[in-house]
Amino acid sequence: MRRQRKTKIVATLGPASNTPQMMAALFDAGADVFRINMSHTPHDLLKRMHGDLRALGQAKGRPIGILVDLQGPKIRLGTLKGGPRQLKEGEKIRLVLGETSDNPDEVPIPHPEIFQAIKQKHALLIDDGKVRLQLLKKADTYADAVVVVGGEIKDRKGVNMPDTLLPMSAITPKDRSDLDAAMALGVDWVALSFVQRPEDIAEVKKIVAGRAGVLAKIEKPKAMASLDQILELCDALMVARGDLGVEMPLEAVPGLQKQITRAARKAGKPVVVATQMLESMIQSPTPTRAEVSDVATAVYDGADAVMLSAESAAGAHPVEAVTMMDHIACKVESDAIYQSMIDSQRNPPEATTADAIMAAVHEVTQTINAKAIICWTQSGSTALRAARERSQAPIIALTPSLDTARRLSLVWGLHCLTADEVSTLDAMVDQAIAFAEREGFAKAGERVVITGGVPLGVTGTTNMLRVAMLGTK
Predict the structure, then answer these.
(1) Residue in 58, 92, 379, 353 with CA at minimum distance from that of residue 235
(2) Whole-number mean pLDDT of the chain?
(3) Per the domain annotation, does 78 fall within a domain?
(4) What is the CATH number of the domain that holds 145?
């Protein structure tokens, strides 16, 4: 089951793919991590899918990551008196606080936070930006706006406010219930929607308490303004291009994707590129050329993972979509210019022992043409540092912790394997060599670079580099 690529694939489960047979088919096609979208998943289904995925990992002998994606707050219009309404450019309308209004000329919004926070000239987008308003003035229970981009509005359509920092938590009561259910099962990653500020991440981190990685979905302009602080607190980022493309100009999204990807790489934290990557494969067995280029761009940029949403959750060709993503990543990574593009984005090591060791591992591996880098890691920090270097050689992450192995399955270039606890450096080297040979990374007479922390079993002490040759002690 060794993958022939370094970029990981996240596949979303849904009606088209949530059976044990389809999960196995998606894994065989190349899925490394499975996403469960809590917007559409009751707790009994979450429990069943979690159990099926754990059984699949045991059957395949590989750690499989499970990512639970929380829904987050959903701001929507109320019920329009008289049904759908056509708004014309230049028209002035009144927004009122409430689920409905007796006045057919008013547009109800049942969210007092909007009226607290919105300011003059702020934009208000309806139905994924199809209709755009600009605020003229406001009071506690109403606001007057002018229609900038006209169109039809309907009951319960979504509302976005790109200019406004809303005074609301990123976690709703439903999210808290979903999060508690996910933590009780023992999922590997939690993705947080509606992130506006670092405090949103801190709130979830406090609840999770280290039991899972916390992934921040970057989908709002306010999150971009605090990206460095959010990145410092979270364990991974997602470029959530769907909502980001609603609240920001579409032409800005590719540049933001590169900015987010590079920031995450510099910090040594995983970054996932998501949304509409192979959208046409929801219906079609093959993607468009533009979609292939889109996936390839994310791989060239060094993203840790690329993600399928509706393509694998509800599409007609989920296995073909994963297979296509696998083929694209493999082809890009075999391109002669791929490694030079990845190397051009490498960041200098920080002034720490761990970073200095990993920079040395990278250089030694290249100099002696080592066949693999083998990281002995307890918490995952050594393997994350190795992945940050984006070395050409494959990286084997050996860990005695199955939880760590599953979490690392999201990370670029890591082949995660569980190993027995060791008490001596020689025992660690022996196990590393045995795994490299067994998994086909190297053969007798070839060299591997081994790194980890001494004393063994102490987290965060990456301080050792050793070159070993297979077939010898």
Answers:
(1) 379
(2) 95
(3) no
(4) 2.40.33.10
